[in-house]
Design goal:
Blueprint lengths: L7 H8 L5 H13 L1 H18 L10 H6 L9 H30 L6 E2 L2 H15 L7 H4 L3 E2 L2
Antiparallel strand pairs: 1-2
Helix pairs in contact: 1-3, 2-3
Amino acid sequence: MSTIDPPEELLSAYLDDELTAEERALVEHRLEESGEWRAVLEEVQETRELLHSLPVREAPTGFWDSLLQPDIAPPVQLATARARRGKRALSWLAGAAAAAAIVAVVVVPGQSQVKPAVATLVNRHALRSSVSEEPVSQLAPVTSPVKLNR
């Protein structure tokens, strides 16, 4: 009992006179030394006074009986429960697949069209370089007319 943090529970037991003589002596010694412990003791005392000042309420008729004798639900057949769970999982999976299909159709854009088509430019380059028999000088025209449309 040398290090006790936070001391709220111990101080509450101290106020309720629930400590042994040795524990009580240790708490009183700690209270003499520590301003923090005295502040916490004051907070615990104020809280207890507030709680004691609350009005006492009576439980509604039949409340305690319902707690002591709860209605017992009928037993669940394991096979039925598993079948229901399987149907729920299957319907959830079908719903998720439908949602994914909708997202794919709506969100995923169609193929973008590049103008002029790159394949056409490559074919033109191959044709020009094969006619002039100088492929290096024909490389520059392949890249210049390409534009991407969005």
